Amino acid sequence: MSAKNITMEASMKVGDIPLGFTAGPGTTKNFKTGDWRSARPVLDREKCSYCGFCYVYCPDGVYRDMGPEEKYYKVDLDYCKGCGVCAHECPKKCIQMVVEEV
pLDDT value at position 17? Predict the structure, then answer.
């Protein structure tokens, strides 16, 4: 690489950098990422106050509202990566991270 190219690349702004995608938009549902996790969230429904913190704080959006009849949020283990944010943020501490068995 020439000195001219290095200088040009160093002076580029964020908007000048071309973006690329390996998959089209909206295709993440086609890639089940749950097999990455080493621990899974387990909900104690007796303690759950149906506050929705797990739903709101989940970085992968894997919680689904089961509605006012059921009064809990269900995790989709096909996509949960086991980060534990839901368990950490739960004010009732009703979500425990359980180590996955291999």
Answer: 56
